Amino acid sequence: MAFDPDTELMLKVRRDDRAAFETLVVKYQRPVLNMIYRSISDPTEAEDLSQNVFVQVWKSRGRYKPSAKFSTWLFTIARNMCLNEVRRRARHPADSLDKPLTDATDGNESVWQVPDPGAKSPVENALSAELHRRVDAALAALPEDQRTALLLLRHHHMPYEEIAKVLRCSLSATKSIIHRARATLRDQLKPYLQS
Question: Tell me, what DSSP letter sits at residue 15?
Answer without folding.
Answer: T
